[in-house]
Amino acid sequence: MSTMLEVRGLAHRYGAGPDAHVAVEDLAFTVAKDELACIVGPSGCGKSTLLRCIAGLIKPSAGEVSLHGDRVVGVPDDLAVVFQDYSRSLFPWLSVRGNVEFPLRTRVGSRAERRARAQEALGWVGLSDAANKYPWQLSGGMQQRVSIARALATRPALLLMDEPFASVDAQTRADLEDLLLRVRRDHGSTVLLVTHDIDESVYLGDRVLVLSKSPASIVADLKVDLPADRDQISTRGSSTFVELRTEIARLLHDRQPAPAEPAPAAASASSSDELAAERFLAAEREEAHQKTAT
Ligand SMILES: Nc1ncnc2c1ncn2[C@@H]1O[C@H](COP(=O)(O)OP(=O)(O)OP(=O)(O)O)[C@@H](O)[C@H]1O
User: Fold this and answer.
1) Are 148 and 142 in contact (CB under 8 A)?
2) What number of CA atoms fall less than 13 Å from residue 8's CA on the CB side?
3) Cβ 45 under 6 angstroms from ligand 1
4) For residue 15, how far is its CA from the centre of ligand 1 (angstroms)?
5) One Pfam family from the UniProt entry (predicted)?
6) Could you report the per-residue pLDDT of 88-119, keeping only the tens digit for each?
7) 223: which strand partners?
8) Can you tell me the ipTM of this complex?
């Protein structure tokens, strides 16, 4: 498989001098064409900074990013980003169709072609009938589907997704995850998705890159050995899924500050590890839940 994205020696520091903050440190990885790679890491570790560097939105302090072999120096034309906050990324004064056509203005000369591409992408996300509505007439999940259609309509070489499903309720989140898997299976796309949610990273990914706490570096690059066809019940219940999410939780937990309380004396080494991993998962879910609630 050919390499779509290559990140080499990437580092980014905000500010200078003694107040400088190193957000990302010496990151290197590749994403192959048609691969879906997930990045998971603790809150504030530098995930969004990494995505902004890849998207050409900020210039890294060191290292470089290449997309299909071309060095990224500004925002590439064939790269699309889906952000968590759909309500701020859609234009409320444009219809759903208008929003999806918007980025095509500079890419596709023919108006008829723009319309056809927008209608096609809306079909992929199940919103063909909502083309004439306005974003504020749609639910949060539907608005995020519009954002995804808008990104896909540009036929990006790379789709970056920054916590794309973190602002919707659990059922909508599961539906959007399945939508992403289906769109990708049917139409092929290369995706790099950042999430806080360990389970989501395993459910969606072909690979999971685990980041350390700030400054972000890669502590593991794990292949997800699950069938391409996944479903919310049986995939999440499979032993491969459970083992991998536990391993990731343990990797993340091992890089947290030492707990204030010692583990119960009666617990064996491995069961206290698992308890710690479970507690970490529960804390992550609680944090994600609070983010959704606010
Ligand atoms: N513009 C900025 N100026 C200074 N520091 C920044 C800036 N943006 C981010 N940071 C700092 O860099 C670190 C990494 O931030 P970043 O948003 O990349 O992390 P994150 O992993 O995406 O966070 P979260 O999981 O909470 O979304 C944080 O400590 C943050 O405070």
Assistant:
1) no
2) 9
3) yes
4) 12
5) ABC_tran
6) 889 999 999 999 999 999 888 899 999 999 99
7) 207
8) 0.96
